[in-house]
Amino acid sequence: MTNDFIYYYPPLISGILIRRYKRFLADIQLETGEIITAHCANTGPMIGVSKAGSHVYVSKSDNPKRKLSYTWEMINIEGTWVGINTALPNKVIKLALKQQCLLELTGQYTQVRCEVPYGSNKKSRIDFLLTKEGEKAPIYIEVKNTTLSQGKIALFPDTVTSRGQKHLKELISLLPNATPIMLYFINRKDCYAFAPGDNFDATYGQILRKAVNQGVKILPYRFEVTPKGIRYLGLAKFLTNSL
């Protein structure tokens, strides 16, 4: 664990969530009283992290080509900031990998590549491919953003995800010639353990347990989100049993 931020936010603007709708949109009242529509990058159901009346922060882009200049970045849920912008986890992990601060991977690679085609038909892309000169087995990392919680336990997925099931199967197919890793980015500091969301996608949970049994590594990493930046907190406990 480090006290330093891995990622620093640009200046953020405070507001109150009015509503989230049509997956991509959120109406937010700023402290000035102005009501704006912000882009919501998280297209999932956002169970428990889209409550109207909650304190939120947004960023503002100066790009004149953007249809919506504001982006919803985070929401405060019972005193804990939860990251909403799903474009950030991969950026944060990339920074963490470059800094060699993920302890379970430290020293195991010298090169980090992003969005690398892989699989039998090369139509899939892995989030990160780590290699080290002299090492024959590369490390493949798929990243999944995680915001759903049950008490102090983070859950993934929060809905049926055929895409997520496919990613697990693709990681299994890399064995034994590579080290496949499923990395869960727990986008809130209040969860100390991680478990598959069986109540939301039982098939995903079954495939995840199969992946573990066959040798896919599971790394559920905890992160603290603040209006200043994102801090790495370390590994959460992985619970394989159904909740």
Work out the strand percent: 35-45%
Q: What is the total tally of β strands?
A: 17
Structural class: alpha+beta
Order of helices and strands: EEEEEEEHEEEEEHEEHEEE
Query: Helix tally?
Result: 3
Radius of gyration: 18 Å
Please report the distance between the alpha carbons of the first and last residues.
Answer: 28 Å
User: Average pLDDT across residues?
Assistant: 95
Low-confidence stretches: none
Morphology call: globular
Helix content: 10-25%
Give structural notes.
The protein is an alpha+beta fold and 243 residues long. 15% of the residues lie in helices and 42% in strands. The protein contains 3 helices and 17 strands. The protein has helices at residues 88-99, 162-173, 202-214; strands at 5-8, 13-21, 25-30, 35-39, 55-60, 70-77, 80-83, 111-118, 124-131, 139-146, 148-150, 153-156, 179-186, 193-196, 217-225, 229-235, 237-238. The strands form 3 sheets. Strands 1-16-15-13-10-9-8 form a 7-stranded mixed β-sheet. The chain has a 6-stranded antiparallel β-sheet with strand order 4-3-2-5-6-7, with no helix packed on it. It has a 4-stranded mixed β-sheet with strand order 11-12-14-17. Strand 15 (217-225) and strand 16 (229-235) form a beta hairpin. Helix 2 (162-173) runs parallel beside helix 3 (202-214). The longest helix is centred in the last third of the chain and has 13 residues, at 202-214. The two termini are 28 Å apart.
